Amino acid sequence: MPEILLSSDAPPTSNRPKLLVLEFWGLGDLTFATPLLRAAQERYDITLVGKEHATRLLQPTFPDIRFISFEAPWSAYRGKYALWRWNWGKVFALFRQLRAEPFDAAVSVRNDPRDHLVMLLAGARKRYGFAVWGSDAFLTDPLTRSLPQQHKVEDWRDIGRALDLPGMDDAGPQLDHAQYRSESVDQMFAGLSGKPILCLHPGARIGVRRWPEAYFVRLVEKLRARFHFDFVLVPGPEGCGPALTSLADRVLRPLTVPELVDVLGRVDLLLCNDSGPGHIAAACGRPVIPIFGPTNPDWFRPWGDQHHVVIRDICPWRPCFDYCKFAEPFCMTRLAPDRVWPEIREHLCNLIDRGLLSREFAGVEALPVS
């Protein structure tokens, strides 16, 4: 049974209009919401309902937002449709808590009737979302996307435009890295050589999104032979094998969410899978090279033109959105390091030429870079 945590904080008491934001999913999804949050906080008292990590990720950047921690059972990877397993007492407790506050507006970016029903049962006067399967009945303002297929940041921008918020045409995900700086991360980085830092986060919450560790080993060996950097390894919850740890100049211990933001905001480049850390680094203004497998980068890539998505249409069923029909995710296991190395090398040289990566990263022996 998913644990559901409710905030006991008192609701806001100002006379400004109140906005309810629903984002029940992962760290990356929360970064996508930051353009709307940044603009809306100038006009609204905001309450955001999401997983417990929403508070740890966003509160340093948005200290005036009120967070309610709720582990929505329909956001589980497995068993989300087993309604008899849901803790209905906790679900209805959330509804009662939300109805006690007179929300002027509520928003959700998900194509999910359950989110739209939550907004209705919360009693929000205006309810904005992208209707699906008849859920326009729950919405006062069903929205149409600007493009049939667009990035989730564009979805949040469309909602911001519906709320008549300023700056939506140019707004992008952003975390205020300075608010996450800590002495603990100072100590983690102490003693490095001072060369540019390449960080690798080889984990991902969903197993089919993980590029094989042996492939990362081969790629790092190629990077070591061509470029000049300190290599910092951030193990995922599943850990890392000795082949990767032996290559690293620094292997970090398990990190809290604020520490993860601080680490990713300090590095010069992040190499990762399609996972939350890539979006956090991008929101801190750091270049990211993510390895994509089953998901659609048109919707979920790190936002910005300084990133490079590594992907191949190896499997005809891609995108399958994390539910692979085969015994192994061929979109990842058949994406060999030698196939992706030329494009990664070219992208790094391009970043150096554009001034987005220090020329020191190229190393004296590697100049010229292009």
Radius of gyration: 21 Å
Provide the CATH architecture of the largest domain. Answer: 3-Layer(aba) Sandwich
Question: Main β-sheet: number of strands, strand sense, barrel status?
Answer: 6 strands, parallel
What's the CATH C level of the largest domain? Answer: Alpha Beta
Report the average pLDDT across residues. 92
Return the string of H and E elements.
Answer: EHHEHEHEHEEHHEHEHEHEHEHHH
Number of spatially distinct domains? 2
Termini separation (Å)? 54 Å
Helix content: 25-40%
The CATH topology of the largest domain, please? Rossmann fold
Organism: Chthoniobacter flavus Ellin428
InterPro entries: Glyco_trans_9, LPS_LOS_Heptosyltrfase
Protein name: Glycosyl transferase family 9
Pfam families: Glyco_transf_9
Notable characteristics:
6-stranded parallel β-sheet; transferase; globular; 2 domains; alpha/beta; Glyco_trans_9; 32% helix; 5-stranded parallel β-sheet; Glycosyl transferase family 9; ADP-heptose-lipopolysaccharide heptosyltransferase activity; Rossmann fold; LPS_LOS_Heptosyltrfase; 11 strands; 370 residues
Task: Describe the model.
With 370 residues, the chain is of the alpha/beta class. The chain has two domains: 18-162, Glycogen Phosphorylase B (Rossmann fold); 181-366, Glycogen Phosphorylase B (Rossmann fold, 3-Layer(aba) Sandwich). Helices cover 32% and strands 12% of the residues. The chain contains 14 helices and eleven strands. The protein has helices at residues 27-32, 34-40, 52-58, 88-99, 113-121, 152-162, 183-189, 213-226, 242-245, 257-266, 276-283, 297-300, 330-333, 337-353, and strands at residues 18-22, 45-50, 66-69, 105-108, 126-129, 141-142, 197-201, 230-233, 250-251, 269-273, 288-291. A six-stranded parallel beta sheet has the order 3-2-1-4-5-6. Helix 9 links the parallel strand 8 and strand 9 (250-251). Helix 8 (213-226) crosses helix 14 (337-353). The termini are far apart. The model is unreliable at 1-8 (pLDDT under 50).
